[in-house]
Every structure is written in structure tokens, then in C-alpha cells.
Amino acid sequence: MNLEQLKVEISNAQQRPLSGGITSNNMTIYDNGNGQLTLAGDITITIKVLDLTSTGVYTLNSLMNFTQQTIANKLKGNIFLGGFGFYKYDSSLKKFTNKPHTYTIRYNFNYVVKLTQITMLSQLSGNDFVLAVVDDIRSSFTDKYGKSRKVSGLTNGAGGPAIVSYNDWAKYPYLAVHEFFHTLSLGDIEDNSQKQKLMYHLGGNTGSSISNQELIDVNRYIMSDISNVARGRYTNPGLNTVNRLRTFLNSSSNGFIFNKAKFR
């Protein structure tokens, strides 16, 4: 495939109907009359897993199942955000007015997480979350303590894509969970006293906990404009996934080692 053909394929992929990422149904807002809004509904997060390894990921199904269950478990429960400045909600009209108002927000979404394997570029659409599995990542970083460390996974900011080294994922099952929460806007933690946190990334994690503030940040990223809840249904905007994945994988500074023949 030459460059022009690849550009056409990418363009076609980006124009297909949105198929994954974040979708929702049964979205509702409840005002308790005492300054608290409850945002509720069913939110499905779909992550497409693309195997770009040379020899295959023999434990892919078990790793995907673990990752799917762990992400869903981390997102469970009620999350409260105080002092949220927005607009007054009119329960009778089921919409926000133009009058400024401050609320406590209660996130009470029912999250369903799905990891599904894909085999080619054409199975990605513009708003999809994607987790690509590669042979290795030959780059390193220097932590805040001045020590050079090998990279096991990389994410191209909020929205992704996320890339993990297969051998490291098999060794550290929480790796893909960690990288996906980068996709949902969380940053790394390097404080050695925080080894129990999921976002600690200097190796030797002793746990996988997420703080209430981190869960607030994730919920705010997922539903960045609460007006979307009032509309009943929601699909996340396009992430330009295909082009971002291609650019990220082919950046020499990232040092991804993968089967380029599979990236078609």
C-alpha cells in the first residue's frame, strides 16, 4: 500500500459512523432541591484491542478479561463533586436555564466496559478508544529521582491511543488498566509513598487504588458537559483515532517495535 492509498483508507475510516468509545442510554438528571444534582444512566465504554505483535499474544483473552473487569470495578460507585458552578436545572422542562447556579454533583453512572479484539485498521472509527499491543517499546524516561527507567506502555494523552508492550502486560496485568486511565485523562504518579496507586508508574506497585479526586476527574472527562445528560443519549466526539494511532506508532522517539504488516 502506497502513501496515497493509506491516506484514502484513513480518511474512509474516519468518516464511518461512530461505533465505540463512549456511548450512553437512559440518561437522567435529578435535582434533590437542596443543591445536589444526580447524574445517572447507562454508559458503555468500548476499547478496541489491536494485536500488532510478531508472534501473537497467547494470553490475550485472559488479559483482556482482567482489564475489562478491573476498569469496570474501578468505575463503580457514587462519586461526589462539590462546588460545581453551572446553570440552574429546570426539572419540569428537563433542561438547564441560563441562570448561573452552584451544585454538588453526584455521578451515579452504570458503567459497562467492553474490550473487543480487532485485526485491522478498517475496524477502527473516529471516536474509538484503541489499545495496541506491540512487541516492545524501546524508549526510556528519567523519573523525578534522576533514575532512567524503561517504558512499558505509552498513551498519547486524553483520548489515546494507548500502547502496551506484550511481555510487560503479561508480567504486570494492571498495565493496560493504567494506560487506559491515561486515556480517561489521569496523569502518572511518581511519589514513592504512593506505590499502592494504580497511576504509580515507577514499577513495584503494591496496589491499584484510585482516589476519589481521580474518579471525579475521570467522570468529568467522560461527561465533560453535563448538558449531554439532559439530552438522554450521548456519544463521545471524534478522537481522530486512526490518524493518531498511525502517527503515534510511527514516531521514532517512542521506539515501538511491532509487526508493520499487521497495521493495514
Notable traits:
264 residues; alpha/beta; 8-stranded mixed β-sheet; two-stranded antiparallel ribbon; 12 strands; 33% strand; disordered N terminus
Question: How would you characterize the overall build of this protein?
Answer:
With about 260 residues, this protein is α/β, with parallel strands linked by helices. Helices cover about 25% and strands about 35% of the residues. It contains 7 helices and 12 strands. The strands form 3 sheets. Strands 1, 2, 3, 4, 5, 9, 10 and 11 form an 8-stranded mixed β-sheet that branches. A two-stranded antiparallel ribbon has the order 6-12. Strand 1 and strand 2 form a beta hairpin. The radius of gyration is 20 Å and the shape is globular.
General shape: globular
Mean residue pLDDT: 89
What's the helix-strand series? Answer: HEEHEEEEEEEEHHHHEHE
Q: What is the gyration radius calculated from CA atoms?
A: 20 Å
β content, as a range? 25-35%
Largest sheet: 8 strands, mixed
* Assembly classification: single chain
User: Helical percent range?
Assistant: 25-40%
Terminal CA distance reads: 8 Å
Number of helices: 7
Low-confidence stretches are: 1-18
User: Structural class of the helices, strands and pairings?
Assistant: alpha/beta
Strand tally: 12
A few lines on this structure:
The chain has 264 residues and is α/β, with parallel strands linked by helices.
